[in-house]
Amino acid sequence: MSNKVDLDRFRELQRLAYRGAEHVASRLEPGVTERMAAAALRRWLERHGVDDWFHVPFAWFGNRTAFRRFRFPTQFLPTNTRLADGMPYVLDAAPVMDGYVADIGYAGRLGPNPTWDRLDRDLSVHRATILDLVRQRRTFSDIYREVDDLIRRQGHTNRHQVYPGRVIGHQVARIRLGGPRFVVFDSFGVRTLRTVGRELIKERLEGRSPLWAGGAASAHPPTPGLWAVEPHLGTDGDRVGAKFEEILVVTENDAFWLDDDLPHVHRWRSA
C-alpha cells in the first residue's frame, strides 16, 4: 500500500492528466481528427513534465466512443475519423512522471447531444456503486457482474468488455526507473510492459490477478493497492459511448477514490 507522499504524487499526476484532457477538449471543433486530438494531448502532457507512458493518449469520436464493431486491438488506435457537431468523444491517456502513473478517461460531446447527456447521467451512478461494493469486500468478479446487471437495467451495454481481457480496471503501481523509455506497439511504454509483466507473475503466484474482469482469475476480494477503474457504457445501438477512468485506493479494510476534484465529479454534482 502506498504511503501518503506516494498518494499525493499519484493524485497530482492524475489531476495533471485531466487538466490536459480538459485543455484539448476545450479546443475541439468540427474537422479535428482523432489522431490530431491524441497528438495534442501527448504534446501538452510532455510539455508539463510527463517523461514516459503507461500508454500514450487515445481519442475516439462518434460511434467509436462505444467501440462499435471493434474486433482487433489495432482498432483502438486513433484514426482519421473527424469530429462533427453533436458527436460524442472520449480522450484516454496514461502518463508516467518520475515513475508515478495515472490512467484517465475524459468523455464529452461537441455541442448538444441528449442521448449522451442521458448516458452520462446513468454513468454517474457507477462511481458510488463500485465504491460501495468494494467496501463490502465483494469479490472483483462479483462486482463486475453487479456493474453489468446495473448497465442492463439502465438500458445500456457494457463496452469495457471490449477492452483486451474484458477488464473494468487494472492495478496501478510505480514504474521502476531505468532502462529504455520508448513506446512499443504504437501505445505502451517499454518500462510499463516490464513492470506489468512482473506484477502479473507475482499476483498469479498469490492466486490473484492485477486485471479486474468477470472471470475466475478475479474471483477474490479486492486486492489492497491502487486500481485504475474504467466503467464504459454504450447506448443507442452502440453509437454513443461514455466512460470515466480514475484511481481507486483499496486498503485492507476500506476503499476510497483517490480524488474527488475531477471534471466528471464536478459535472455530476452540479447537475
Automatic annotation (TrEMBL):
Residues 9-252 form the Peptidase M24 domain. SUPFAM superfamilies: Creatinase/aminopeptidase. InterPro entries: Creatinase/aminopeptidase-like, Pept_M24, Peptidase_M24B. It comes from the Bacteria. This is Peptidase M24 domain-containing protein.
